[in-house]
Amino acid sequence: MDDASIWSQNWAWTPVPADGAVTYENSTCTLCPGGCGITVRKVEGRAVKIEGTKGHPVNDGGICILGLSGLQLLYGPTRVASPLKRIGERGDGKWQKITWDQAISEVSAKLAEVRAAGNSHALGAITGPDRGTVSGLLERFLLVYGSANFVRTPTMMDNFEHVLYLTQGVEATAGFDIENADLVLSFGSGIIEGWGSPVRMFKANARLVENGADVFQIESRLSNTAAKSKHWVPINPGTEADLALGLAHIIIGKGLFDYNFVSTHAHGFEAFKQLVQTRYTPAVVSEKTGVAPGKIEEMAVKFARAAKPLAICGRGKGSAPGGLKEFLAVHMLNALAGSVNRQGGVLQMPPPDYIRWTEPVTDELAAEGLRKGRLDGAGSDQFPSSRHLLNRFIAAAAEDATAAPQVLLVAGANPYYTFPGTQVVKKAFDNIPYIVSFSSYMDETAMNADIILPNHVNLERYEDVPVIAGLSKPVVGLSKPVVAPQLNTRHIGDTIIRIAKAMGGHIAGAFEWDDYQACLEETLSDKWDALSGSCIWVDDAYAPPAPDQAFNTYSSKFEFNAGQTQKALNADNPLPEGNTAEYTLTLIPFDAMRLANGYIGNPPFMTKIVADTVMKRKDGFIEINPVTAGKLGVKQGQRVTLSTPVGEAKVRVNIFEGIKPDIVAIPRGLGHTAYDEYLAGKGVNVNELLGTVEDPASGHDAAWGIRAKLTTA
Amino acid sequence: MKQAQKEHTTKRYGMVIDLDKCTGCGSCMVACMSENNVPFKTDESNKLDSITWMQVYKLTNGKSYPNTEICYLPRPCQHCAGKHEGHSPCVSVCPATATDYSKETGIVSQIYTRCFGCRYCMGACPYHARYFNWWDPVWPEGMEKYLSPDVSPRMRGIVEKCSFCFHRYQLARNKVYLEGRKDLDEDEYQTACTQACPAGAIKFGDLYNPEHEVHRIAQPDMQHGGRPQNPHVFRLLERLGTNTKVYYMSERRWVRKAGDNYLPGEFENPGAVAGSH
């Protein structure tokens, strides 16, 4: 027996992890915008496990799989180990290691050259979220440099902010008191797919289940959210706004709306009523949406009669902005129910206001650059209340090389992979002569950059994390270094400050801090002590203003029918690209917790647990209904070609009962070309098959899918 | 005194998983892999050789669109007691005493250095809870830094499985001993999956202890092989007599039915079908 044991255990290498003193350190996870508290277990300085912080107001001990896998990002092979300068063609992966001094002087020299030629407006920056000090420093840099082209990556939050601005006249972010709602109408929001702050939403969902709350999940695919809701309402994708307005028709027609709110605190109700009464009758809405009239009425009545109903939207994780009409229509439902700024409803949340830096002094070159405005047209006469339009920025850069930025800085974003219409993004990149990536990881954007100035990963750096993810209380987290920097990386805040200082003049003058740490401590001032200890600051006393105080519109009331609202509500639904004669199917992307699809790709643990009906070896799968499969004559597992007006891909078929016939669904988060061997080259990046459709009212990309066909050849 | 202490040391650790709350997100699986130094390969899409001590299965009600329903079912090792305590399917077949049943905790152990990879236990386990290391584990350069010293990394040629994070029990026992206390509190020993679950779907504790949540929810009848008395609670393949310590809960009948194999009509009307008990 002993011999057998020795024979079978003839292992070449068995790591013996070193033992030692165990400590725990708290921080805030920044791998997604959710703002969860994390507690890292360390053994003699090594981080060995990430856990959710018990008692934390966002996630109270829970943690998602991306947060759990954070150590694979920290110690993993996808990291950029030092500043790199491209030596081969873009995307070839041929790099030369350079020192930080070289990197800073090279980038600042390039920026000085562009500026001296009077082209300061030709500096662009793309970031992830735009609320903390890091994006603040970058935005400030662009301002003193002389460019208005600071663009944040759009999400559903753009539309929520837009809606609050149009209907309530406030510059606020949206909070959702979902824990206290007793009925939720979800227009495709992935309550348990990563919408908002994921762990918080899991907990809220568990509470809805415990309370037996009615949750209506309205979407064409049986997502996990649909599967766990009390009611799954399959709908023709892209007709959610029609359904919302159809529900409004019934609620108004039956007199079930909150009379007090509408009569006392709202303005323009008659015009809105007129719109829904004439154009959104149950018959018309049923025809468009594919939802039976009886179901529409049931939802409308239950919604209106619930004590604390809440309607939410933003498809899947909410990583695409979506159409303004839909967001407005859904918000109107909340208004009709009186679920605005009250317990269980939608809350207007003040944007974080702790960044109070002095107005920088700018020079004539900067003023001239700023006068040239934004490439994306946000804030222009055409799109007066949109703030950032990345789709238009990319389209403009792709369309005309002379208008494209000459230098692009990318931080906390991976547009080369995450943005729909990969072909257009590639073209835009081709037109931009100099691209600087601050990524910690060798992602697709970094791969196609000219120089990489790698940031520390979240577990190595300080950063304030204002949480803009639908929470019902204002929360600011602090990300803290849990381990010493493992590689030759620098904090992006320090890098920006050093570039500014290297450029001298007014630009240097706007960055008087010695380093990022000094900037952060000064900025957080009275919050610093609390944050540096517990890593969390929460305004527990916050309550949204009462209806007679809340609205800052012309009428000081909730506006059902302001000019832009009217325009948006009267607009047609954004249609997917492609003609229906050739492309008989509709392709929709979907989100899943096991596939990270933001600027960070799947770490190995996450890819490991992706189902073999989603990805098998290198193949990605599409989901289709058995009826559709029968019609097309395709079988489970069969290899087919999926084509759309913008691209095609080889995929395999997964026949799934939980999807509407004639729809093809494909997950976001696969088909990476960068990162490591654990992720690259597996499945299809859906963005290569998608295009963008500009929303006429907001200018955002409102596409939710595209026409498609399958061929078996 | 001695008698009282003895009573206190006998535990039957177990789990209750609320399938209506479980979202299939996978946090339990990844928390487990991270806690227990479970390796990964470049391709893990062949699920037959993919090591997942905790595995989340996807169940469907078999109905067509739009009446399809999905439920997720997390499956750790079920820590079977068998008909008599210690008569677990795997323990009874192991020729190396590499897997054993603890009468102190009710936990089925796996002792890597004794295992020589015959895989009888894998054949015996009705729950596919055991995994074989077909290869030595390889971590990419630098990543072995995150390995935990609490759990030995395994090697090629042996079997591994969920231990209910037994090392956490040991650490908690040490702490209690050092503090001069007799007994563990409920929250002092929790598995990594329980702790991580963002939906709060997993409860873990001592099934013997009427104050523990697992006992209160499952209401196990310890005189009759731990059978749950809560009508919404069931165990997997209950009628095999494996006497498992992982209980599942759902309000949905089809989900409860999926926990075992039934003859047509048997689940709806037990006793009506000839030959069934």
What features would you highlight for this structure?
heterodimer, A: Dimethylsulfoxide Reductase, domain 2, Barwin-like endoglucanases, B: Alpha-Beta Plaits, four-stranded mixed β-sheet, two-stranded antiparallel ribbon, 10 strands
Q: What is this entry, summarized?
A:
The complex is a heterodimer of chains A (713) and B (277). By secondary structure, chain A is of the alpha/beta class.
Q: What does this molecule look like?
A:
Chain A is α/β, with parallel strands linked by helices. In chain A, 34% of the residues lie in helices and 19% in strands. Among the domains of chain A are: 157-349 and 544-570, Dimethylsulfoxide Reductase, domain 2 (3-Layer(aba) Sandwich); 585-711, Beta Barrel (Barwin-like endoglucanases). The model of chain A has no long low-confidence stretch (mean pLDDT 95). Helix content of chain B is 20%, strand content 13%. In chain B, the strands form 4 sheets. A 4-stranded mixed sheet of chain B has the order 6-1-10-9. Chain B has a two-stranded antiparallel sheet with strand order 2-3. Chain B starts with a helix and ends in a 20-residue tail after the last helix. With 277 residues, chain B is α+β, with helices and mostly antiparallel strands. Chain B has one domain (2-257): 2-Layer Sandwich (Alpha-Beta Plaits), CATH 3.30.70. In chain B, strand 7 and strand 8 form a beta hairpin. Chains A and B meet through helix 1, strand 3, helix 3, helix 7 and helix 8 of A and helix 2, strand 2, strand 3 and helix 6 of B.
